[in-house]
Amino acid sequence: MFQALPRIGRRRALFGSAAVFAVVGLLLWWLLPLGEDSPRGTITFSTGTPTGVYQMYGKLLQGAIAKDMPQLDVRLLNSDGSQENISRVATGKADFTIAAADAVETYLLQHKPGAKRLRGCSRLYDDYVHLVVPRRSPVQSVADLKGMRVAVGPSGSGVRLIANHVLEAAGLDPGKDIKPLADGIATMPELLEDHKIDAFFWSGGLPTNAVQKLSKADDIRLVPIGNDLVEKLHEQGGGSRYYRSAVMPADAYPEAQRGSAVPTLAVANFLITREDADADLTEELTRTVIASRDRIGAVVHAAQLVDLRTAIYTDPLPLHEGARRYYRSIKP
After folding, report:
1. Residue 273 pLDDT > 70, yes or no?
2. Which helix (H) or strand (E) holds 119?
3. pTM score
4. What radius of gyration do the chain's Cα atoms show?
């Protein structure tokens, strides 16, 4: 028969066993997903035009999500821009997207389908309005575009919305006082190089690759958009109240700007979804957006401006509950 352990020996054995079980338990908690699975399934993310910042940002975010949530499949959809993106999410054709504040406000004010279901996840970075002309162009202000061939973006784009507002603020009728072309950033630079248009509007993060390449290949410049137009835009009300005065830094497009900063206007971009989006998924996706800022920003410079201190400001959209959870979880 086995000899009984002394009382002290039994006590030590019990404590030793408890310690072993505690260590093993901690290791299992650390290594195994006990109770909380990573989000899984498939989501659709609407981006933008192939050469625009939305599309590039979407691709890089897709890679970051794959790393943080390997069981989640993210499918990207190209689009014409903010207006189409918002419509897709509001009507269930996409789950998440990026859109500019002015386009969001316009969608809400027009009471379009699904408008009340839209929610914000994060304020991202600012779009800057570009008005691009050949260097020898006589155009010195927006008002000088009268009678000219101007690319203003596709009908579903954010740039079309901004271009129309800016033209109206300058006293021009977008449908009568210029010859509008519905081309986007994928074809605008080539049309300008081939003298098929006299100017084009673009709204995007800095720098936008298509404009950067054009500035190195052709002699172009950026037309200033002054404070006077910003004040008139605010008088328009609606989505125009989200435009603000900004300065395009001299090093955004060095060849085009030749050391000079350019006055313009800017508008914030948001990551948006619907009210019925899964809260756990939305919380983790918002976490990935903030955590991947530096990695994405190394390629998309605009993404470096994603700031945790301002990320919660998604007016005119209320925060999604999942995003709210994330911001609460990191609050000191």
Report:
1. yes
2. strand 118-134
3. 0.85
4. 26
